[in-house]
Amino acid sequence: MNTQIAADAVAHPVAGQPVVRVATAHDDAFVEELQAIAFGPGRFARTAFRVRERFPIDTSLSLIAEVDGTPCGSVWMTPISVGGRKGYLLGPLATHPNFRKRGAGKLLAREVSARALARGEGDFVLLVGDQDYYCPLGWETTTPGNIQFPGPVDPNRVLLLSDDKDLAKTLSGAIAAFDAR
Ligand SMILES: CC(C)(COP(=O)(O)OP(=O)(O)OC[C@H]1O[C@@H](n2cnc3c(N)ncnc32)[C@H](O)[C@@H]1OP(=O)(O)O)[C@@H](O)C(=O)NCCC(=O)NCCS
Q1: Is 93 in the pocket of ligand 1 (CB under 6 A)?
Q2: Do 157 and 128 form a contact (C-beta atoms < 8 A)?
């Protein structure tokens, strides 16, 4: 690849196309409002929210998507472990309604997972979400009931991404702290 072209592509994002960056404290109000718009008041009762109440998110993996400098999407990651294997719970993922269908959501999901797994500390990215959205990105269905959440989840929506192609079917246990033994 021509490295100059690659460098220019990073320095000058294409107008109207989403790019991602790490969130800062200045994004807090945007993210809070976005999550309220995307998930409504019921978001606090979601099982994935209960996981995030117990275990802190990794703010270095909180990403913002923006289009032409305007924040338009957000994703969080929570380091967790399941059955002694370390990994991450992805979510919430949301794109502002004014900026949907431009690729921001998939870019955020891909990018945050690539950054997390590249650290070499965790083996998987777990989430509760729609198969139609996430499976084309590499997430796979898990064995129903194997992964225990602190509340009810639809087993068809418990999806896992890993370089270990057996893990989606074999990972088993309750969600625990990242450094649980
Ligand atoms: C889901 C969401 C993050 C997608 O954001 P986005 O930036 O529009 O996503 P992308 O542009 O990368 O992808 C858009 C495509 O995914 C499709 N899509 C969106 N949500 C989908 C879903 N739940 N299931 C299947 N496909 C879906 C869109 O129809 C669109 O298809 P197209 O490319 O054929 O037009 C956004 O709609 C959102 O914030 N929704 C509310 C919160 C939510 O449901 N979050 C996900 C929790 S699992």
Answers
A1: yes
A2: yes
